Amino acid sequence: MKATINVVAGIVWQDGLYLAAQRPEGFPMAGWWEFPGGKIEPNEPREAALVREFQEELDITPTEYTFWRELEHEYDKYHVRLHFFHIHKYSGELKSLENQRTAWVDPKTPPTLEFLPADIAIVEALHI
């Protein structure tokens, strides 16, 4: 049986655009785009994991956010359960602390970035 990994992911909004991050070299699935976030630690609330991950990866603290939906995806070696949040406001200045590239994406235009397979349904839901 595959291990299940619980993950939080944040959809950061600014001026009608959402933030995408590219997985850096040396990380699993490097080069793919994703919504920033990461693993939920054992016994850690989802909201605490969201705040911690954004502080660790992008040096910002989400201050206004809402849970949106949960999604599950099977990869070859593991099963991932993603908890997506819309982040409406944050404090701090966005910095790539893990040397990941970031891009602001317009949901009114067709997606052009190559997102992780687990995130494709979310990208499709955002691009109306």
TrEMBL record:
<keyword id="KW-0234">DNA repair</keyword>
<dbReference type="InterPro" id="IPR015797">
    <property type="entry name" value="NUDIX_hydrolase-like_dom_sf"/>
</dbReference>
<keyword id="KW-0515">Mutator protein</keyword>
<protein>
    <recommendedName>
        <fullName>8-oxo-dGTP diphosphatase</fullName>
        <ecNumber>3.6.1.55</ecNumber>
    </recommendedName>
</protein>
<keyword id="KW-0227">DNA damage</keyword>
<dbReference type="InterPro" id="IPR029119">
    <property type="entry name" value="MutY_C"/>
</dbReference>
<keyword id="KW-0378">Hydrolase</keyword>
<comment type="similarity">
    <text>Belongs to the Nudix hydrolase family.</text>
</comment>
<dbReference type="InterPro" id="IPR047127">
    <property type="entry name" value="MutT-like"/>
</dbReference>
<keyword id="KW-0235">DNA replication</keyword>
<dbReference type="InterPro" id="IPR000086">
    <property type="entry name" value="NUDIX_hydrolase_dom"/>
</dbReference>
<dbReference type="InterPro" id="IPR020476">
    <property type="entry name" value="Nudix_hydrolase"/>
</dbReference>
<feature type="domain" description="Nudix hydrolase">
    <location>
        <begin position="3"/>
        <end position="128"/>
    </location>
</feature>
<dbReference type="Pfam" id="PF14815">
    <property type="entry name" value="NUDIX_4"/>
</dbReference>
<keyword id="KW-0479">Metal-binding</keyword>
<dbReference type="InterPro" id="IPR020084">
    <property type="entry name" value="NUDIX_hydrolase_CS"/>
</dbReference>
<keyword id="KW-0460">Magnesium</keyword>
